[in-house]
Design goal:
The chain has about 750 residues and is of the alpha/beta class. Helix content is about 45%, strand content about 15%. Helix 16 links the parallel strand 15 and strand 16. Helix 6 (about 215-235) runs antiparallel to helix 7, helix 9 (about 275-290) runs antiparallel to helix 10 (about 295-320) and helix 15 crosses helix 26. The radius of gyration is 31 Å and the shape is elongated. The protein starts with a helix and ends in a 6-residue tail after the last helix. The structure holds phosphoenolpyruvate and magnesium ion.
């Protein structure tokens, strides 16, 4: 007999019981009879969780007087062990197992063999189904599989009959799992508490027994087709990023998606009488159990990919396609995902989103920049989140240490709350610096500005007392929109931002899309899919060709800044002619407006970003044309080191304070000495204290940074003597120390500066 037919014959009989009008207890009594008979077992019992204990609810073969009397704690005896570990046991001699506990009231002494499987609901054991036998023999594999399938169906019966309280299911969580500390990489500092929510929600299968097996087979077939199509298309999507590790993941996905063994096993499970959803879940359970016995990290990783894919298949089959953002956040949330695009993050309710944990991620990935701007701590590089965290688990995120605590104990929570309060105090201390002008002890005025991109970000100007907005990423409006934003909408946003900024300058960067900022509505032909989008058709390169897009934006900016100063900056300028062309687009629009007697900006300052290294060789040509130059260290570093900024494998590899970068940045200062163009930094680097110290040492006095860093940087500036760090930096650049970071840190210590 195959496992499918064994399970099928039981399920057919169970189906009638479940559909009957009997009350729940009577149904359970019949269920144990059916299973016992079918598996030729003298005993079949069902234990269910009640008030935190496993209670014998129904039995065939044990003393009936033990029903509702015998109770075991989670972890106690064989039944308790199965529930605790959510694992199957199959023993020839029950009494020989170290966890065996004899319960005289049951009269079980005559039975030798024992097999038990957990009854699982929402990934937690809510009961145990077990069979016992007089002969001391292990149960066959097909019998165990049949039991497992039946246990799935029982969970439906149990939940429909409300035999187990949801409270018990949640309570079981606390009992069954202990705190765990996950270590990752700090991407955005800060502390956060909340409940775990997966960006791609896990589907909880509610209907287990199929009405029409053929129809279920069709549903799975169609879902597989859809999933394969998705995987084939996925390469370019933000959820997966590009290159490096993502490619590997995608390859693994492909391998599983087209794996015939997987499809076959799901079909067999459908044959046994399960619905498509239950069959997928059933196969997954079985794989999980097998994998648990193999201790191989590589396989564990693969398993994780398969879990992801199985969940995707479940979502397709059940038609539940939305992300957690579509469903809405209900309480303070820590969001978990493999990776996210910036637009995906922006879909979440800011008031409830407290922290993010990613399996991938890097410091300069745009999703991380967005989170930083939102003041949301992010930890990256924690693998196998699904295996470690469950939906609804309590989480403490320590973005400073790069750790997250799952299911913290009360004392952990108390300690965290105390730190939280302290950090809020520190924040309040920084807030007090808001009216302090950042001037070094030797009188150098450092302009500390903020990077922004959303309308709400302007509030940070007043909260931090920053000198202005040194980088307004206009593409964020494009990223959060469902379609290309109309000119009027753009104008409105820019005008609001200028108004909020008042006298303080705002530097608008023209759209920088492409790379990891893909616009779903800006269609790119499949034939044009880029291997290397960060170095591809993005930013100004794209804007100059899609002239319509740039013209509209130019017009919107010019109109919004009527009567004021307009600062425009072009991203990814690689050669001076690109700057000329971009400027010409603006000038053409300006003339047009002038001819139409429209009010114009009082002054227009055109600037460029230096983020492509080639431009550094052309500064003598470019600088005379510019009002300002802003260095985008995020992109610049990736191009200097030929290291993809969104590739997590390279996330920690190159240091911003490496001599190569510092020398490069110094060269730009030197090239500008005869030109006196206003120079600034607008990459994430400037918002980190140790890096900012180095930058001031190189002669940079304008930093545009993430708002949360304004206070800490102001504090540093005010305690610093600029000429001292400049002299030290000169020496280090001439003779680079082996570890520049350690050298800088030591210098800071000696000068009593906090750079962490
Ligand atoms: C940069 O590249 O450093 C930069 C500021 O631009 P973005 O991060 O938006 O690419
Ligand atoms: Mg850039």
């Amino acid at each position: 007999m195959t496992a499918a037919s064994a399970a099928r014959s039981i399920l057919t009989r169970l189906h009638d019981v479940m559909a009957s009008r009997l009350h729940a207890q009577a149904k359970l009594n019949q269920v144990v009879e059916i299973i016992g008979e079918s598996l030729d077992s003298e005993v079949c019992s069902i234990y269910l969780l009640r008030e935190g204990m496993l209670e014998l609810f129904a039995t065939r073969g044990l003393n009936q007087s033990a029903v509702h009397v015998t109770r075991m704690a989670i972890g106690e005896g064989l039944t308790g062990t199965i529930a605790e570990r959510v694992e199957t046991l199959n023993l020839a001699e029950a009494a020989a197992h170290p966890d065996f506990q004899y319960r005289p009231e049951t009269g079980e002494e005559k039975f030798h063999s024992f097999a038990g499987v957990p009854i699982v609901r929402r990934e937690r054991a809510v009961g145990v189904l077990c069979v016992q036998h007089v002969d001391p023999r292990r149960y066959e594999e097909v019998e165990i599989e049949a039991l497992q399938t039946v246990a799935m169906v029982l969970s439906e019966l149990i939940s429909n009959a409300e035999l187990v309280d949801d409270e018990d299911v949640l309570g079981a969580n606390a009992d069954q799992t202990s705190p765990e500390i996950l270590k990752g990489l700090t991407l955005v500092k800060g502390l956060a508490m909340g409940t775990a929510v997966f960006h791609q929600p896990r589907i909880h299968v509610e209907h287990m027994v199929a009405e029409d097996t053929e129809a279920e087979r069709q549903r799975v077939l169609t879902a597989f087709d859809k999933m394969r199509e998705q995987i084939d298309r996925m390469a370019g999507q933000a959820e997966f990023g590009k290159g490096g590790e993502h490619e590997e993941v995608l390859q693994t996905y492909k391998m599983f998606a087209y794996d015939e063994g997987w499809t076959r096993r799901i079909n067999e499970a459908i044959d046994s009488g399960l619905t498509a959803e239950a069959a997928i879940e059933r196969v997954q359970q079985r794989t999980r159990m097998r994998m648990r016995q193999i201790d191989d990290p590589l396989l564990a990783d693969r398993m994780h990919d398969l879990e992801d894919l199985a969940n995707r298949l479940l979502r397709i089959v059940s038609g539940q396609l939305g992300t957690a953002a579509t469903l809405g956040l209900r309480s303070d949330t820590i969001l978990l995902a493999r990776n996210l695009g910036p637009a995906e993050l922006l879909e979440y309710d800011k008031r409830r989103l407290k922290g993010v944990i990613l399996e991938e991620g890097s410091l300069t990935a745009h999703v991380v920049i967005v989170a930083r701007a939102m003041g949301v701590p992010v930890i990256g590089r924690i693998r196998s989140l699904r295996a470690l965290v469950r939906d609804g688990d309590q989480l403490l995120v320590d973005g400073d240490a790069g750790t997250a605590t799952v299911r913290p104990s009360q004392s952990m929570q108390d300690a965290f709350e105390a730190r939280f309060a302290k950090s809020k105090e520190r924040q309040a201390g920084y807030a007090k610096l808001k009216d302090v002008r950042p001037v070094t002890r030797d009188g150098v005025r450092v302009h500390v500005m903020i990077n922004a991109g959303l309308r709400d970000d302007t509030a940070m100007l007043n909260l931090t007392g920053a000198d202005g907005i040194g980088l307004f990423r206009t593409e964020f409006q494009f990223l959060v929109a469902a379609a290309l934003p109309q000119r009027e909408r753009q104008t409105r946003l820019y005008r609001d931002v200028l108004e909020a900024a008042g006298d303080r300058p705002v530097v608008f960067r023209t759209v920088d899309v492409g790379g990891d900022k893909a616009l779903p509505y800006l269609r790119v032909d499949a034939a044009d899919q880029e291997e290397n989008p960060a170095m591809g058709w993005r930013a100004l390169r794209l804007a100059l060709e899609r002239e319509g897009l740039m013209k509209v934006q130019a017009r919107a900016l010019l109109e919004a800044a009527a009567g004021r100063t307009l600062n425009v900056m072009f991203p990814m300028v690689s050669e001076p002619w690109e700057f000329d062309e971009a400027r010409a687009v603006f000038e053409e629009q300006r003339l047009l407006l002038k001819n139409n007697r429209k009010m114009l900006p009082e002054t227009i300052n055109y600037g460029a970003m230096l983020e492509v290294p080639s431009l550094a060789e052309m500064l003598d040509v470019l600088l005379p044309k510019l009002a300002f130059l802003s260095i985008g260290t995020n992109d610049l570093t990736q191009f200097l080191f030929a290291a993809d900024r969104s590739n997590p494998k390279l996330a920690e590899r190159y240091d911003w304070v490496s001599p190569a970068i510092l020398r490069f940045l110094r060269r730009i200062v030197v090239s500008n000495q005869d030109h006196g163009v206003s120079l600034g930094i607008c990459g994430e680097m400037g918002g980190r204290r140790l890096e900012a110290l180095a930058l001031i040492g190189l002669g940079y006095n304008r930093l545009s940074i993430t708002p949360a860093a304004v206070g800490p940087i102001k504090e540093l500036v005010c305690k610093l003597d600029a000429s001292e760090i400049r002299t030290a930096m000169e020496g280090w650049l001439a003779n680079p120390p082996a570890d520049m970071r350690a050298t800088l840190r030591q210098w800071a210590q000696e000068h009593e500066l906090d750079v962490d």
